[in-house]
Amino acid sequence: ERGERQAYRALLDRIMGREGRDAAWASEQENQIRATLDSVSKLDVSARNVECARTMCRVILGHKTTTGQQEVLTETAGRPGFTLPGQAHLEWSDEDGSAVTYIYLLRFDTDWPEVVAKE
Fold it and tell me: What span, in angstroms and rounded, lies between the C-alpha atoms of 12 and 17?
């Protein structure tokens, strides 16, 4: 399952790289996302990457614990920058209990890409 999530993230990242940037939309979304993350900065979160392209945004967050990961998701849900349709991939380390959250947010007027099944 983890491998499937990694493959889907790679697909989304390739799409973001190909489609380029809608500067006005992307900048506004990034500002809203960062402002919301700043408002929860006392929680277990460190922003590793916030980037938007033409049709979607990628937010990568680091956490010391999986509990902290869940708290951040709860506190950011529905807040500015996090009102778009989204997918969160929750990853964690079995060694130290740390976690990484990969969040992809999609413009309302677009659809999620489908994974083509390998024959």
Answer: 9
